[in-house]
Specification:
Pfam families: PBP_like_2. Keywords: Signal. This is Phosphate ABC transporter substrate-binding protein. With 303 residues, the protein is α/β, with parallel strands linked by helices. It folds into two domains: 122 residues, 3-Layer(aba) Sandwich (D-Maltodextrin-Binding Protein, domain 2); 135 residues, D-Maltodextrin-Binding Protein, domain 2 (3-Layer(aba) Sandwich), CATH 3.40.190.10. It contains twelve helices and twelve strands. Strands 1, 2, 3, 4, 6, 7, 8, 9, 11 and 12 form a ten-stranded mixed β-sheet that branches. Strand 6, helix 6 and strand 7 form a beta-alpha-beta unit. The radius of gyration is 25 Å and the shape is globular.
């Protein structure tokens, strides 16, 4: 009886071990399989959500996107609480110190070129804006003629971008407004004439279904700068050629330190299918996807 009991327990142990190995093998992360969490600058969230939908439909992978402000993402990366992010800049040497200490070399993959756009209420007659006026406004010298400047988030990449342009450490306290998301900026400008919103162009060219009508209530402004010959609209062509003055390169920052799902996802976005999704979103792809043209030898005759 004892002998039978021993064999039964041993058999159960072998089965459990086999199941455990099978589960571990199933959950093991590779470049095209497993689970991964990616932090995404909120200004880029719509296009990255589209990328994930297609990626997950083709591979046995689950990618969770977390939209946050640039400042929050940098803090999480620099503390090694996350290892994957999509940002319009790379980490500085000080920010990446913890990874250097662990001898982890980042994999940086260019994904697209994004643009920052200005929007106003649809009833505003003027659809042009001088970048120098915005810079002067951010410096606290109100000579712009508009009621206020509206940002998505005090810690966002757009705020950091304009603070660097204006060479200031902080924004003025008067006539500067900020919310949490790009959609909130668009909604506010759509209801308040004279306000100028600052948003990622992706939110305008690729709005969510519940934002389609709201986006129609605002106008996208053409921008003039010291580097342009005139006023330039943030069209996909002008972003690609660099004629539009407020562009920035979007990159995938991978600090995993091994060949994981982050590498596979970055390769997908930078590849043929991913770049087509970028093209459709209104942003400028890193490389123009190829086109397959079928040439027929004979023209069909219709009777």
């Amino acid at each position: 009886m004892k002998k039978i009991t021993f064999y039964a327990v041993f058999l159960l142990f072998i089965i459990a071990l086999a199941c455990d190995k099978k589960a571990n093998s199933k959950d093991k992360e590779t470049i095209l399989k497993g689970r991964a969490t990616i932090l995404v600058d909120e200004t880029l969230l719509p296009v990255m959500e589209d990328q994930v939908d297609v990626f997950e439909s083709q591979y046995n992978a689950t990618v969770t996107l977390i939209g946050k402000s640039e400042s929050e993402i940098v803090q999480l990366l620099s503390k090694n609480k996350q290892q994957l992010a999509v940002l319009p800049r790379e980490l500085t040497k000080n920010e990446a110190e913890i990874f250097e200490a662990k001898k982890i070399t980042p994999r940086i993959t260019p994904l697209a070129t994004d643009a920052i756009a200005f929007v106003c209420h649809k009833n505003n007659k003027d659809t042009l804006i001088d970048l120098q006026n915005v810079i002067t406004f951010v410096q606290g010298k109100d000579q712009s003629g508009f009621k206020g400047l509206v940002f998505d988030n005090p810690n966002s990449s757009t705020v950091r971008y304009f603070k660097e342009l204006a060479k200031v450490n902080a924004l003025p306290k008067e006539k500067i407004f900020s919310f949490d998301t790009n959609n909130e900026v668009i909604q506010f400008v759509a209801k308040n004439e004279g306000m100028i919103g600052v948003v990622g162009v992706n939110w305008l060219f690729q709005p969510k279904p519940d934002m389609t009508d709201v986006v129609k209530q605002v106008r996208i402004l053409s921008v003039k700068s010291s580097k342009t010959k005139g006023y330039v609209y943030p069209s996909q062509e002008n972003i690609f050629t660099g004629d539009y003055p407020l562009t920035r390169e979007i990159k995938m920052l991978n600090y995993q330190g091994f060949s994981g799902l982050g590498m596979g996802f970055a390769s997908f976005v930078a590849g043929e299918i991913g770049q087509r999704i970028i093209l459709k979103s209104g942003l400028s792809p890193v490389r123009i996807p190829s086109r397959n043209i079928v040439i027929r030898k004979e023209i069909e005759k219709k009777e």
